[in-house]
Amino acid sequence: MKRLLNLSDSAAGDISLTGGKGANLHRLSALDGIQVPGGFVVTTDTFRELCTDVVASRGEALKASSPAELARAGADIRQAIRDIPLPEEFLRELEAALASYPPDILFAVRSSATAEDLPDASFAGQQDSYLNVRAADVPRAVLDCCASLYNDRAVAYRHKNGYRHEDVAIAVVVQEMVPSQVSGVLFTADPMTSDRLTCVIEAVVGLGEELVSGRKTPFTWRLRGRKINADSKTPPPLSDSQLEEFAAIGKGIEAAFGAPQDIEWCWVNGGFFIVQSRAITTLYPLPESRDGLKRVFVSAGHMQMMTDVMLPLGMSFMKLIALFRMVEVGGRLFIDITHDLKTAYGKKMIRTKLAATDPLTHQAIEQVLARQDYIRGIPKGPGSFSSFSGWLPIVREGIRLYRRNDPADIDLYIQRMERLIARLEEQLEPLAGTAAIEAILEDQKQLSAIIYDASGFGMVLATQFIIRKIDAMGKTLTGEENISNRLSKSVEHNPTSEMGLALSEVADLAREHPPVVKYLEAAGEAFRLDDLRQVAGGGAVADAFESFLGHYGMRATGEIDIAKTRFRENPAELVGAMLTNIHTLPKGHGKSSFEQGRLEMTRLTEELVALAEQKLGSRQAKRLRRYISFFRNYLGTREYPKYFWICRYDVYKRTIMREANRLVEQGILQEPGDIFYLYLEELRQAIQTGRVDYTNIARRKRDYSHFANLTPPRVIFSDGEVPEMAYQKNIPRGALPGLGVSSGVVEGRARVIQSIEDAVMEKGDILVTSFTDPSWTPVFVSIAGLVTEVGGMMTHGAVITREYGLPAVVGVVGATRLIRDGERIRVNGDEGYVEIL
């Protein structure tokens, strides 16, 4: 048994003996030019010798599932460990180790768990550390560190991340205290953006504990090459030359450890000491470049308003219909646009698409396009945005539709799409096994053609063209930018906004029956239509709700991932939106607001046409009237291609879930949801062979759980560079910049919500969330404004807020982190910013 090991001892590099922190400190102490305070490690052998019996006798309690029970079990074990009498032999060894240091030395006593400072999980801050400890108090501090393995946060963290408590042990690092003049943290890659070319240094005067605890605001620098950006106006504690020297030290440690590092350091008498280094586990994974070319990738999730992880089966479906060259990175899809940057057509297509969907992504790509040396070095190759060749029939159809300007054409398109979906249902209903999967694969070949149907997409393209015409004339007439935004309220033929109005009608029916409202308030996640039917007056409401689901039950948050739960699978997600409607809005609010908006648009149209007549003449006035007529007739149709795409996905999913349930019955799958962790080809093989590799599924569940906590960059290069991006605008001090997509200014309470299921709002509330897609529309009926982290002028939230007349600002980076739930905020949709009041 090895109770104590010097940090320089070769055995100290064994993580099973010295824990993550101890093993990393051993590696650091062996590097040339790196100063590490001297010390030793009380090994995990010692922990097991002292604590195994105590933990084993109480270990059953750690299998509890409730947070309260886990906390009680952890507290019991902590106290029992602190009460352990230390063996005389161990105390003599510890005393001898401490005696090798000068008598007046103080020590840092720090926990080093075996599940800590790992390449894929840092577990930072889970256990305790003690500073300025006298030699006589080190034994007590060692026991306290051992006990901290069962802190509430440590126990809950292991439980959440699937680590067995019995598999984790702890060592304790005892090091000389360094009298720090300056302390801090160096990240050898930017942990916020995942940019591998930027180092971030934070520093405080004195001990680093002041930084970690939050008692001092740190100086912060960002270094890229020789460029240093500081965010403080007060004199900094380190010079530029010292920062450059330390960044080089950090990069050397990164090279030795083989991954970007989070390094704790202190500066004493002109020298840097390293007191800890661990992998940065929050960096987004890098996309691969198979040919070594520095490639640039754009997040497809930011373009589709779905930045959540997408499970493997969802990835399979997206790749089958993709027009672009997409790769899977960190559980999301990215588009390789490298070769598009080389051609005039590719550049035009990129700019057109990104300008409409995400302004920050567009800005980043403009920076890349300005790098002429990089662009010249790109060889010719197949593009992504420039690969679609089906524009000609779409353009022709768009011109035909504009000339006719007849909403009957919209009805014909809808009827044709609905017939295709009905035919697909009839085809898949009787099929099972590999025949069902083969039929889905065969139908997938047609899905892109259906999504980019000439009529459906022609409507979208023609409308976007007309928007530019209206905005140009509006600017001439009134000086107002984007006047089409104000003309967007209450348009017909929008399946998404119609969904919100339809649910408000179900809520209006429910409010007439107090027992129904009482049931909705109490049901929560337990809501069931069958239970609703048992409530007085609930039958009619259940019928109306069922009819609603017949039309819109295929929708879901993040619905482009076929794994996402649909409304028809969990109607409880909509109960919050119904209750908000019932409690905050008068009966008939949906219809009356729609009619009011239509009257406002009629008046605005007449005002603009009259102004055009006065300023530009009758011919231009007549042209403007025609533009507005087409715009109002066809604006809502932009939602139809995705609507019918998701309708088709819903048919696929019902077929797939029948197969999942059959595989569970046969004992091939453990639970139906496991099917989403298989790629489509793996699913086909599982059906054929009757076998599934559960080792693979378990690994993917861990990976995707990790991926879910990562923030995908909008743009990333294959070498890890992330272009800098920020809004360039003059806004009030402290305001959060974004893109104003729906005009108006509103103040209200911020409701920071990530799931529509939690969206129980009150009158005047402002929704703050990561992104919205059509599934959020029922909430829009009752909110006062919208703030999202992702979005552009033509994305879902922008279009629907304009139709409902709600001020909205999208693309607000970090909105759900910087705005706290319940804070009062002001949303300025005219200028594009949010103020926290």
Describe the structure.
Strands 16-23-22-18-19-20-21-17 form an 8-stranded mixed β-sheet, with helices on one face. 47% of the residues lie in helices and 14% in strands. It is an alpha+beta fold and 837 residues long. Strand 10 (261-268) and strand 11 form a beta hairpin. The protein starts with a strand and ends with a strand. It is built from 30 helices and 23 strands. Helix 23 packs antiparallel against helix 24. Among the domains are: 4-176, Dna Ligase, domain 1; 182-279, 2-Layer Sandwich (D-amino Acid Aminotransferase, Chain A, domain 1); 495-590, no CATH class; 666-707, no CATH class; 736-836, Phosphohistidine domain (Glucose Oxidase, domain 1, 3-Layer(bba) Sandwich).
Summarize the structure.
This is Phosphoenolpyruvate synthase. The chain has 30 helices and 23 strands.
Distance between the termini: 61 Å
CATH architecture of the domain at 4-176: 2-Layer Sandwich
| Broad structural category | alpha+beta
Q: Please, what is the average pLDDT?
A: 90
CA-atom Rg in angstroms:
31 Å
- The fold-level CATH name of the domain at 4-176 is Dna Ligase, domain 1
The CATH homologous superfamily of the domain at 4-176? ATP-grasp fold, A domain
Largest sheet: 8 strands, mixed
Strands side by side in the biggest sheet: 16-23-22-18-19-20-21-17
Count of discrete alpha- or pi-helical segments spanning 4 or more residues: 30
Domain PEP-utilising enzyme mobile: 762-832
Enzyme class: transferase
Protein name: Phosphoenolpyruvate synthase
EC number: 2.7.9.2
List keywords for this structure.
837 residues, alpha+beta, D-amino Acid Aminotransferase, Chain A, domain 1, 30 helices, 47% helix, globular, Phosphoenolpyruvate synthase, transferase, Phosphohistidine_dom_sf, PEP_Utilizing_Enz, ATP-binding
